[in-house]
Amino acid sequence: MSISRLRTSVLVASLMLAGAYTLPVQAKPAATAAKAAQAQKQLARLAAAFHMARCKFDPLLFATANGDSRYDDQIGLAISPKVRAAQFTLYRGMQKQLMAVNRNQLSAHDQLTYDLLTYELNNAMQMESFPDHLLPLNQMDNVPSTLANYAGGTGSQPLETVKQYQAYLSRLNQLPAWIDQAIANMREGMHKGVVHPKAIITAMLPQLQNLRAASPETSVFYSPVTRFPASFPEADKKKLSAAYLKTVDSKVAPALNRLVSFLENEYLPAGRASTGWSALPNGAAWYAAHIKDSTNLPLSADEVHALGLKEVARIQQQMALLGPKLGYEGPEKQLQQWMREQTRFNIFTTDEQVLDAYRAIYAQVQTKLPAYFSLVPKAKLELHLEPELTRATASDHYTPSAADGSHPGVFWPVVNDPKKYSRVDMVSLFLHEGVPGHHLHAALLKEIDLPDFRKFSTENPNSAAFTEGWALYSETLGKEMGLYDDPVAYYGHLNAEMLRAARLVVDTGMHAKGWTREQAISYLMDVLGWPEARARNQIERYMVMPAQALSYKIGSLKILELRARAQQALGDKFSYQKFHEVVIGDGTLPMPILEQRVNNWIATSK
């Protein structure tokens, strides 16, 4: 012991014996610990309240679609102006309460939750002044069609118990009120000039018309009672059958008729001839808010547009180099058209063969994962065909596993005709929608200790830069894993990446630079070599979901940028496993927060 420390110890002992020293150095940590515990409790309470609020306002999006089955008996009425106003009032109050929490007293884990909750609340509030509720349905997203898809019981809302049947029935009983509110909102939108283009109304009408049935017994909403599990008691079967019949006949069917009649006779004639969001009142600012929401970054439409053109040119150059390896010697711009005409890639005759091929890719990927990932979920992935109802307009997609284990994660390939289904895109598509894309990320979220608002975040619109960026980044890993040694599979990846790059161009083109729907369709046909019908389907998606399609490429490029930074800084110390732990180990992160965490990891790893 040093002399100075010895003198101090003697002095403290003397003061204690004299009763003049009460060891404040011990009392201070105790007080600090108490304050820290109080701050942690305040944060946990706010985080839980925020998730509960989002679920009650929009349970289909923020609960069921994210694998949280606790709200499967509710639709929510977030499109109601009164409910919407109450939601923003509540969030404003939560912001004030969160500001009262001392962030410095929180653990590193809780500080991240604090930062994410701050981000989520701020992000939600930035949309308050824009009337999204006046456009309550479209051909890509509408509550009646979502509930119709859930009728099969194989998606996000399982139908395997009496309680689950009762929950779905509860939603059917709430559907008429939602439809009537949607009609009222669209009428207000007609008055204020906030309406869909005529082309969009025309596109969504058949889907909603087809939800109507000749009789209640033939309705898709009645269909669950035709598939009761054998374990159901007869009394429950009888009771549920009568209740479903009454609800569909007296409530759902009339409401659907009101909706279709309104769309045909009032809304379609009022549809606008313009294409982009900039044609709406305050549309430029509205679209700018959507860009920030989807990308998490302060990018202008012009910056995104220029980046898209640059990426298209880069991928075209790579395709030109790949052409000869595929046996193609013609003009560069006709490669994609030539590839589609190669019937040797159409190797399937049945739907089951398509699913088997995806299962084989899954097995191959599983052997590659350990070299790149130390974090892998326990939950397995299942493959199911896209339901017939939405097959004509849907894109291949993934639905997360339930946190309670009631259903697995599912990849839904869209197979309209197996004989025309090409193997070209299958590897890249599986890496995106399945593993290590959406499933690895979404399933992990359910298995790590996170607050609910972080655990159930994969389907949230403002998480798209991470969720879709991660999935597109996962496609690029096919090259490292050797899955693109097959030139056909690598072409499929480049072709898919080209779509994501072209989206940056057409989305900003339509919503900020005055492009018409026809101009955007023509661009996709030219760059991707697509037929008009397919290009139209995609363009109409971007027309109703402004800036959502930007998230894929922007997020992927950011993750690739961060990986390159880490590889350059760490050299031989760089590890794919460690990098991926940093990226997905804390759940879904906005791009600025992700960048900060990667930078911190690099600094501590040198």
From TrEMBL:
Query: Which species?
Result: Duganella radicis
Q: Which residues form the signal peptide?
A: 1-27
Keywords linked to the UniProt accession: Signal
Which PANTHER family has this protein been placed in? Answer: DUF885 DOMAIN-CONTAINING PROTEIN, GLR0591 PROTEIN
Q: Does the keyword Signal apply?
A: yes
For this entry, the protein name equals: DUF885 family protein
Source species, domain of life? Bacteria
